[in-house]
């Protein structure tokens, strides 16, 4: 969580404080869809081929700590501190190719996502996807989920000066939509994404698809959901329109 000049964390905003709510920003991986198992499989298999970790497969705890929600440049440095950037980038490109080959058969929307998207459209809210994923991954996932026409903007972390956990991608999304942080909510599933949304001055709804709820709260999430069917979400959304 970002700190104010006095060293204290900023107060967490609630959704009703946004009234009237005018825009919604979504992360993609783990937020629109439960894609982490596909990413985990791709990393595990390719790292095994390398003999990484003395041939012991990575586990989910390792994946959450070192990989989930992070930008590929940071993942490369964490996994391969002794490799040059080109070699790490080649490995990560191969991993993304494998991921994209698996997505069409395995990608599933988070429960209640399309209900939420319909509600957003019906209320005329602006909306954008904001991700640390490579653009080809992001566009493919959005397409498979049937949301290509839903999103009015797609912001990719690698195309900003700094990716998440910095606020730059979310600030760019606000600018592209012509929206204010005072009337916009963020949906995120990772610590780095939540930190980015909070640093950009918005309340963040943490979607606990895979990451521990306590880590999402510690990062600054204002509300924690298992999925978009949670009645608490709908109560807060309705209050945010008043």
UniProtKB/TrEMBL annotation:
EC number from the UniProt entry: 2.7.1.26
InterPro entries, per database record: Beta-PGM-like (IPR051600), HAD-like_sf (IPR036412), HAD-SF_hydro_IA (IPR006439), HAD_2 (IPR041492), HAD_sf (IPR023214), PGP-like_dom2 (IPR023198)
Keyword annotations from UniProtKB, A to Z: Carbohydrate metabolism, Magnesium, Metal-binding, Transferase
Molecular function terms, GO-annotated: metal ion binding; riboflavin kinase activity
Principal EC category: transferase
Presence of the UniProt keyword Isomerase in the record: no
Entry cofactors: Mg(2+)
Pfam families: HAD_2
Protein name: Imidazoleglycerol-phosphate dehydratase
Organism encoding this protein: Apostasia shenzhenica
Name of encoding gene: HIS3
